[in-house]
Write a structure and sequence with these properties.
single chain; alpha/beta; 4-stranded antiparallel sheet; 14 strands
Length: 540
């Protein structure tokens, strides 16, 4: 009897040890997660999507070693709301961050909080864009608001607000590598946010890149001189035209004194002040190097301006825009390469999910525009490249309607955690494994910030791989339908075309169903309009 009892005890102890060992092994296998996001990085400016404008070999590497998504999109194409959707896994009207003005509801539970509670070490470096104390992070150093390109300030978790000399993209990369190398607890899985300011307006590249990129000439988009025939009021009244709405000083880098000399009026009340804020932040050495390159550009413009037609000016402004915009991306791509190389060198790549994305798309002269906000493709679609060794087959492509709404549930599932029931996205983990059945076939979109900067009208819509149905509302009541396969540039609204009558009927019902599914409604629309119009200060 004694021997039997002893045997049972031994078996129990061995079983307990085995269970503990299995749990430890399971915990140890939880993947690290690096979420790389830039601000306003158009998919057209990543060579894995198109090599017409520039080369991004390091970002492309994620696609070659993982999966590229060709129909990744956002729920609301504007910076802070997009980031709130990513953190909460909930649509704008649910998490409350409808636009850049209204504050983020800090009672919302974010997925980094859940990962932190589950034992992940968490860190954030770069641009959050809203809030000074992100929840769920063991360490953070974030830019206040939009941040600066040169000699930026950072709000830190432990050291208050600090100022760091140098170029912002490089500094964010250095902070990220320093945390990985010196602060990270090697015994824990980690969740790291690596967030770039670039290529957000006002597009100031690093010296090593503006010396190169200001000498380049870029191909023009075929719709640069779009006159918006075939579309409704919204496209015709938006204020984001390269010639008439882009700032001369802040954006095109024309010196304010030269604007005065040539009698060029400011396009808005922060035109010259944006130049003073950004270029004026440079130290004397940085400014001397800047002037050595941008001074001759200004002098050449002085000589030619009076003889330039509107068409000439549009072409000139497009080239200036691309030179600076793409120049800022060059440093981002280098930073991505630095992080990927570190993961390889330290043996971390095999068990680390790497995501590269943007908070939304951006116009690079298509339809004559810059900025975003619209449900039209250049704004609505966002780059998404994901690498997860041994889960994602290298060099694969997905065309399904994935959204920034899906990140929270994706990362939670990857970490072995159950997502809260009020999250509204869908995990991408099955797609990573090639399991594409039963995933959403239509994405829902809703934009709210009007009347405001760029004057893009309020609208919501449904997008499938084949079609896009849009309802513009508030001060208009207009519907648009685009055939995404036949009309890739979205030039012709076919909503009233009899050939598409059945498609309109079907999509209209699907749109109603999605609004019910995601708990959006006309009543909520009215509430947000009232709150927006009664805000204390305008939104910029």
């Amino acid at each position: 009897m004694r021997n039997l009892t002893l045997s049972v005890l031994v078996i129990f102890v061995l079983a307990a040890c085995q269970t503990k060992t299995q749990k430890e092994e399971q915990k140890a296998k939880r993947p690290n997660i690096i979420f790389m996001m830039s601000d306003d990085h158009a998919y057209q400016a990543i060579s894995a999507y198109s090599d017409k404008l520039t080369q991004t070999p390091n970002i492309d590497r994620i696609a070659k070693e993982g999966m590229i998504f060709k129909n990744a999109c956002v729920t609301n194409s504007i910076c802070a709301p997009s980031r709130a959707v990513i953190l909460t896994g909930k649509h704008t009207h649910i998490n409350g961050k409808t636009d850049n003005y209204f504050p983020f509801d800090t009672t919302q539970v974010t997925f980094p909080q859940l990962l932190q509670e589950a034992g992940y070490q968490t860190a954030m470096f770069g641009k959050l864009h809203f809030g000074n104390s992100p929840k769920g992070f063991d360490q953070f150093k974030i830019l206040p608001g939009q941040g600066a390109y040169y000699n930026p300030d950072f709000i830190t978790k432990n050291d208050g607000t600090i100022r760091v000399e140098g170029y912002t993209t490089d500094i964010i990369t250095d902070m990220t590598i320093n945390w990985l190398d010196k602060e990270r607890d090697a015994e824990k899985p980690f969740m790291l946010f690596y967030l770039h300011k670039a290529p957000h307006r006002e597009w100031l590249p690093a010296e090593r890149h503006y010396k190169e990129f200001t000498k380049k000439t870029f191909p023009e988009p075929e719709t640069l001189f779009d006159n918006y025939e075939g579309r409704g009021t919204a496209a015709k009244t938006a204020e984001m035209n390269l010639l008439t709405h882009m700032n001369w000083a802040g954006d095109s880098k024309i010196e304010p004194a030269l604007m005065d000399e040539l009698r060029i009026p400011e396009t808005c009340d922060w035109d010259k002040s944006a130049f003073a804020r950004e270029v004026g932040r440079q130290n004397p050495e940085q400014r001397a190097k800047w002037d050595a390159v941008y001074g001759p550009i200004n002098e050449d413009f002085r000589k030619n301006y009076k003889n330039m037609s509107k068409k000439d000016l549009m072409k000139w402004r497009y080239q200036r825009y691309m030179q600076d915009y793409l120049g800022t991306i060059a440093a981002v791509d280098e930073g991505v390469g630095t992080v990927l190389d570190y993961l390889d060198d330290k043996g971390l790549s095999e068990n680390t999910i790497v995501v590269y994305t943007s908070d939304q798309g951006f116009y690079l002269g298509e339809h004559g525009w810059f900025d975003k906000r619209f449900i039209y493709d250049e704004s609505f679609k966002t780059p998404l490249l994901v690498r997860w060794p041994n889960v994602i087959t290298p060099n694969t492509t997905n065309t399904q309607m994935v959204q920034n709404l899906d990140f929270a549930q994706t990362f939670l599932e990857a970490a072995g955690l159950k997502a809260p029931e009020d999250m509204q996205g869908e995990s991408l983990v099955p797609l990573f494994k090639g399991e594409t059945e039963n995933f959403r076939d239509a994405a829902y979109y809703h934009y709210y910030e009007y009347p405001s900067v760029h004057m893009v009208k309020r609208h919501y819509g449904i997008v499938t791989e084949e079609y896009k149905l849009i309802h513009f509302y508030y001060d208009v009541d207009e519907w648009e339908l685009y055939d995404r396969k036949k009309d890739k540039n979205e030039m012709t609204n076919v909503y009233d075309d009899p050939a598409y009558a059945e498609i309109v009927k079907d999509l209209t019902q699907q749109l109603k169903d999605l609004r019910i599914k995601y708990k959006d409604s006309a009543e909520l629309d009215s509430t947000y309009i009232h709150d927006f119009l009664n805000r204390d200060t305008p939104s910029h």
